Amino acid sequence: MTFDRFAGRVLLVAAAAVVVSVVWQSLPLIQSVLLGSRAEPRIVTPRGDLAADEQSTIELFEAARDSVVFISTVERVVDPWTRNAYDTPRGTGSGFVWDATGHVVTNHHVVEGASQAVVRLADGRAFRAALVGADPAHDLAVLQIGVGVDRPPPLPLGTSGDLKVGQTVFAIGNPFGLDWTLTTGIVSALERELPTQAGALRGLIQTDAAINPGNSGGPLLDSAGRLIGINTAIYSPSGSSAGIGFAVPVDSVNRVVPQLIARGRYAPPTLGIRIDPRVDAIARRQGIGGVLVLGVLAGSGAERAGLRPAQVTPEGRLIPGDSIIGLGTTEIGTAEDLRAALDGHQAGDTVTLEVLRDGDSVTVDITLDPGA
Q1: Which one is catalytic: 135, 139, 222, 322?
Q2: Is there a catalytic annotation at residue 139?
Q3: CA 206: distance to chain centroid?
Q4: 216 catalytic, yes or no?
Q5: Which of 67, 72, 94, 216 is catalytic?
Q6: Which three-class secondary structure state does DSSP give residue 10?
Q7: How far apart are the C-alpha atoms of 66 and 13, rounded to whole Å?
Q8: CB 227 within 8 A of CB 158
Q9: 165-183 pLDDT, tens per residue?
Q10: What's this model's pTM, rounded to 2 decimal places?
């Protein structure tokens, strides 16, 4: 056999192999064309039961959904040229039913600056809301709506004092106006601090549950479906969820909201003293730490406990009295530290102050007075 005849047979075999391969690969397409008229939907594979954690998450959402609300606000704008006033959409947020009398809790920044707020329930009903009270220091606000029948139930209340990093949490809200959205994650950290225009928000819960604009004011729930916080802010350079969200702990909410409902504002308990952060700053430059007691109110807990105020000489020189350096187990360095420490107590509580008096550290028990 000559080389040319051998090469020709090899090429013939190779060409035949290519043809067979193409036909084989095209067989499903050929079958589809020939049998297309007889094509039927595929048989669904049985799924089986939902996993236990899936079922519990579904039940949690269905139980809490009706208690979560969608809040939209408008702002009254006055045309400087025509003096005509008109309302423009301002923003949206979330909230939840607090009690059976129509009170709704949300973030202060959700309704701040709004001339009107509308609360929409999960069943589609919408109500104009009245502002009952607000506390910018905790970023909390209370609205009230008039729901005559089929009132949504309030969320079960939990506690935030015993939370542990790693616990599962669930956030329900209306991110970007996409109503009644559920996200889940864990408690990432506790006792976080976040600066705001109204002062630092302290004691916040950090979570990696996705929180986006519009989630603000919505509830953060534990695995038992109890309220443990109010979603208030995110940390994100892009403005969207970056896995770092913050919630006001429910223990603070449960302390502030009843006062907002009863009085329209929140007033933490007081020691009955006068202080001035500007004087504290001057004292620190002179080596005197803590918060200086500049005055003691008559009939106050401070007077009964014998706190000693600063004195001013006829020449105008300040003679320091007591300087508060601790409250309970909390070190006090600034007036903001003292405010935050008092915020964790109620009027009538007895606390132990550590004060600097004549160069010595002294402990004093004092009963807190109601806030003014």
Answers
A1: 139
A2: yes
A3: 9
A4: yes
A5: 216
A6: helix
A7: 73
A8: yes
A9: 999 999 998 887 778 899 9
A10: 0.75
